[in-house]
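Q: Hi! Curious about what Beta-lactamase family protein looks like structurally. Here's the sequence.
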Amino acid sequence: MSFESYLQAATAEGPNRTLPGVVVVAANKSGITYKHASGTQSLDPNSPLVNKPFAADTALWIASCTKLLTAISILQCVEKGLLDLDADLCDVLPEFKTLKILTGFEGETPVYKKLERKITLRALLSHSSGFGYAGFDPKLEKEVLLRGGKVEMTGDLMEHISLPLLYEPCTSWSYGVGIDWAGLALERVTKQPLSAYMDANIINPLGMTRTSFRLLSRQDILAARSDMSMRLPDGSLTPSPTRFFPDDSKDDYGGAGLFSCAEDYIKVLIDLLQDDSKLLSGASKEELFKQQLSAESKTALNFLLYGDYEENKNGEIGAKFLGGLPAGTDVGYSIGGLLVEAANGAGPNRRSKGALSWSGLPNLHWMIDREKGVALFYASQLIPPGDLKTSEAFATFEEAIYQGKL
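A: Let's find out. The predicted structure is below.
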């Protein structure tokens, strides 16, 4: 079966449907080499989008795909001398002066200990700073709820990121709000919102016409936006009762706040394939693709993905982050995303050693393989994250590209 037939069958209306609307784009240094969309923009029979085809210009909440653009923005500020990857951030983010490490609870009372090490941008961007997400970590969730906070993203950035640490920086790995803090550091030193900085330094220079943090001020994006779908525990698909992220966010979340489309996002990936990037100097680009974790943090990351523990007994945790990478693939983490460390890459007809990738909560995935000159983007609007059918589809897409079938 061809990839297009596979995707068509997966998104076809009816009881055997396994995926909502999907768009995939592949590119090399010269530009887009392949794009294909399948399915519709809504599963809700009462929605005007139920018969509207999913497309490469369909507007999407790209969630954590935002992180790559924030990392690029930080590296630009390092080039300008405004930020330092290895400096103590307490001067820029004085909130860090009072940070503590959550060690557990005595009954319903959180127990903290003093932070001994400095927090740097390098640690924030590589998720080794000690920050987590309250929505991913039960200990943090309990701490937030005990003080009357909210776990979900409400549009108030400080409410979302004001968390204790889980460990000393660079001694473990946890997915978390570090890149939101990094975006806030950029706002402090540039004296402008992250959205304004990104518009001037990434979005406009690359001609990204359907990308913004400020959804309600962009009626063109709002009008082109897909509905969100949800997979139920029995595997079936249904319209989602939530969009997960507020339309009217008052703050710019550097870790999750962008709305974009496949045709726009691939422009960032194409630029990073270039020898002469519009966005980053050669040295900064090398930094973006370099493994950044300490031995302790890298061990923790690989255990989280592949370890034998209760929450991951069927690979559920790994699926959230791997995007169809074969289980057991040796990985590290860079300033920009997950990095394949295995000498043979991800195996036959897959990405090379040094390939960089990450994902977005509603089951989006991107990948850059500089060795092979390949960039891939897969997008849908499906929750919850880490969907196994999505991982299978992205892996099938990747294999078809590397086999030269597309």
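A: A fun detail: The chain has a mean pLDDT of 97.
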